[in-house]
Every structure is written in C-alpha cells, then in structure tokens.
Design goal:
Helix content is 49%, strand content 10%. By secondary structure, the chain is mainly alpha-helical. Belongs to the glycosyl hydrolase 47 family.
Length: 473
C-alpha cells in the first residue's frame, strides 16, 4: 500500500502542471483536485511521521500544487456578490472583454457553497488567509439569500445579482453539499465558527418540516414550502442519512436509509432518480458513493451487522454488473445493464473507500479515521486544524517551502481532548446517541416499518399520485 501511494505521489509531483489553457468547473476542481491534493499532502505527512523512511524526499509538493491551483481559481470570485463564477480558465482566468451578460452568470447553491473545508485547510496550512475569506464570504452570501420565513434555499442563482433562478428546495442535486459543508465547517473549524452550526440547524429544522414527507424527501418551492415541485427523488440525496448520523439524529437516518435500500434491492443500484413508490424515473447510475457513505456511517454509529449485509449487496452488484476489464464502468441503463465508457474519479475516491472502511475490521488501523473529517469527496482533513492560526510568519514559511509536518502532526494536537477549552471538550462533536439505538430490536422495527408496512406503501403511492397531479396543475 505504501509503495503504491509513494509512487502515485511521485507521478503527480513530476508530471502535473496546472498552467494550461483549459476551462474548468470551479466546484469540481475544488472538491476533486484541490481536495485530493490536500488529502494526499496530509497523508504523506502522516505516513512519514510514523515511518520516516517513507516519503523522506517529500517537500510539500502536493500542498504547493494545491496552492497554485487555488490561485488559478481566484478570478472566479470577481463578482459583485462574492459568489464564484461556475467556470474559469486555468491560464487566463475570466475573459473580462465579455460583458457580464455574455459570461456564465448562473451557479448552483452547492457549487458556490462547497469550498470552505478545502479553502480553510489551505489557508491554515499556507498562512494565506484569502482562501478561507473568499469561501466564508460565499457561504455568508448564500445564507443571506435564504427565504426568511421558510429558511429554505433555492437551487440556482445569479452570481451577480443574487436573484434565484430556480426556487426549488431539497437536499439532492444542486444543493446537497452546501448543507454538508455548513455542518462540517463547524466540526472542522471549531466553536469560534458557531455561525455555521446555527445556519445548519435552522436549515435542518426547515428541511425536516417541509422537504421530509413521510419517509420520502421531496423538493418544495422555497417561498411556498407546502408546495411540492417534483414527484421523484434523486440519488444524490442518499448522503443525507450519513449527515444525520453525524448530527446525532439516528431515527430518521435509519428510516431514510432503509427506504433507499429497498430501491437498491429492487433495481440492483440506486437510479439517478426514482419515485416514492420505487419506480425508476431516470435509469442511469454512475456508481455514485452517497448510499455507501451513509451505510458506512450508520454501521459506525450502531455496529448493526445489517449494514454489513447492505454493503455486501452493493459490492456483489458492483462485481456482477459494473466490472469490466479495465475497471468499473458506469451504467447508462440499470434495467438492461448497458455500460458507459467511463468511471468517475469519485468511484475510487469515495465508493470503494467507504466500502473498504465498512468492512475493515483491523483492531488498530494504520490511520485513525476518527482523527479526520471527510470532505464531500472523502478526502481526509485533520480535525486538529481548528488549532492552527493563520499568520504572516506561517505564510513566509510556506513561501520558502518550509516543512509543515510539525504543525500538522504535532503529537499534542492529535488528541481532540488536549489543548482544547473545557467547554470544547465537554461538547465534543461526536454525537451521543440515545441508548435505544443499541437495541437491535428497535432498529429492526424501524426498518420493518419501512419495508413491510402496507399502510406505508399505500401512503407513499398516494403521495406520489398526489404530487404528480399537483405538478401537472
């Protein structure tokens, strides 16, 4: 494992350059590439701190690459709102000869609100406060654009005016990781950033009041929250039970996950979109990780072997229906098993990582996962990041390419119980679950209610028909 990782780091260091005349997605470049480089850098330091002969040649090159790439994304923030434009040219930035109306001016809530973890980490490791400042400003602007009565968000807005273009509110495509990063920003950056937690809590309350309909999660109009806008759900919302586990809200997490599992059992994979009575609405499946992610977190929280069985179902279906000679192929149609000639990076970064962790029974794993936070692409960021202060000295050190391993993996910082305030220690972010969730019978009854209750099935079907009628009207 170490040999392969060290080889991969060498390949990136020797062959990757971002000085290219290419237009990229700010959102995807951040979560996949900057997040991946930061996670690789942190892992390299972690390994070297425990095995000094490993990566002894490494001199923060991945961090330097992440910094360079983030600098190339900064022109996207040249907007009156502070929200980033959706795309930028890595060499030329934004074409300022074009008028605002000629440039891309619409972005999704998730696209603008999924930067703070990576950019705050970059600021804390390099001493350059601008990254965290830009990401925080975008998050604050989005919060200000919520509907003040419902506390719900739309899905697409104008980056210059802040006007909502799509006023549909849910927890799936276009908005999902905004909610994830609100909560995780509080976990990663600590109690001095309580605004993130307060915002998340208000959003969460509204989502559970308006978007949750029975066990289903149905998009609603942000200004008219009792008005449904769709008659189906999308696969991206499958991350929600995992986030609920992190917040300590286990009951709805178990129920929503079980509903999703029934869809998986019926179709082998979670369709890109499906109705409340489990029919396929959009039949492709790019081997997304969200359902596996939630399965892993539920198993971590409950220790219930049921989730190992869920994992085996997922793994067996991947091997049987997605395995091809050169890897694993996305499915363009889960009904026929037809493949696409592609495998997204998240399949390795997330899908198989969460499956590996789900089945990992090592009593003392090399990496203590509990010391880290997963980004939305499952890259590892150290929880002791909250102890880092941004200062000019650190920035000067980084500019000189000084090693930062002592700051990242100072042994005093590895334990969350040390060098933290008493209040912080007493209110540890690890959720405390009600004792009843230790009961297999209680958890099984929750799942049985979802999969076997005829009244529930009738309710879901009736709800689906009603929403279809409402949507047509």
């Amino acid at each position: 494992m170490f040999d392969e990782f060290e080889c991969a780091v060498r390949q990136v260091v020797q062959h990757v350059s971002f000085d290219r005349d290419v237009i990229v997605s700010v959102f995807e470049t951040n979560i996949r590439m900057i997040g991946g480089l930061l996670g690789g850098h942190i892992s390299a330091k972690y390994i070297n701190s425990r095995h000094p002969v490993r990566l002894s040649w490494y001199r923060d090159e991945l961090l330097v690459l992440a910094h360079d790439l983030a600098i190339r994304l900064l022109p996207a923030f040249n907007t009156s709102s502070g929200l980033p434009l959706p795309r930028v040219n890595l060499r030329h930035g934004i074409d300022l000869t074009l008028s605002k109306s000629e440039r891309e001016r619409f972005t999704c809530t998730a696209c603008a609100g999924t930067l703070i973890l990576e950019w705050a980490t970059l600021s804390r490791l390099t001493g350059n406060y601008l990254f965290e400042q830009y990401a925080d400003r975008a998050m604050s602007y989005l919060w200000d654009r919520r509907h003040r009565q419902s506390n719900l968000m739309g899905t697409i807005l104008n980056v210059h005016s802040g006007d909502w273009i799509v006023r549909e509110s849910g927890i799936g495509a276009g908005i999902d990781s905004y909610y994830e990063y609100l909560f995780k920003a509080y976990v990663l950056l600590g109690e001095k950033n309580n605004d993130y937690l307060t915002r998340f809590q208000q959003h969460y309350s509204s989502i559970m009041s308006y978007v949750q309909q029975g066990v289903a999660m149905i998009n609603v109009h942000m200004h008219q929250p009792y008005r449904s806008t769709k008659n189906h759900m999308d696969a991206l919302l499958a991350f929600w039970p995992g986030l609920q586990v992190m917040t300590g809200d286990l009951k709805p997490a178990i129920e929503l996950h079980e509903m999703l599992y029934q869809v998986v059992k019926k179709h082998k994979f979670l369709p890109e979109a499906f109705t409340t009575d489990y029919r396929i609405h959009w039949n492709s499946h790019p081997l997304r990780p969200e359902f596996v992610e939630s399965t892993y977190f539920l198993y971590k929280a409950t220790g219930d072997p049921h989730y190992l069985e869920v994992g085996r179902t997922i793994l067996n279906n991947l091997e049987k229906h997605a395995r091809v000679p050169c890897g694993y192929a996305a499915l363009s149609d889960i009904s026929t098993g037809r493949h696409e000639d592609r495998m997204d990076s998240f399949v390795l970064a997330e899908t198989f990582k969460y499956l590996y962790l789900l089945f990992d029974s090592s009593p003392k794993p090399f990496i203590d996962i509990d010391q880290f936070l997963f980004t939305t692409e499952a890259h590892l960021l150290p929880l002791n990041l909250l102890l880092f202060n941004i200062n000019d000295t650190l920035r000067e050190e980084f500019d000189k390419k000084t090693l930062l391993s002592a700051r990242i993996y100072d042994q005093r910082n590895l334990s969350l119980t040390e060098r933290l305030s008493d209040k912080r220690a007493k209110n540890n972010q690890c959720p405390a679950f009600d004792a009843k969730f230790q009961s297999h019978q209680y958890k099984e009854q929750l799942r049985r209610n979802i999969r076997g209750d005829q009244d529930m099935t009738e309710t879901l079907t009736t709800s689906s028909i009603a929403i279809e009628k409402q949507t047509k009207e």
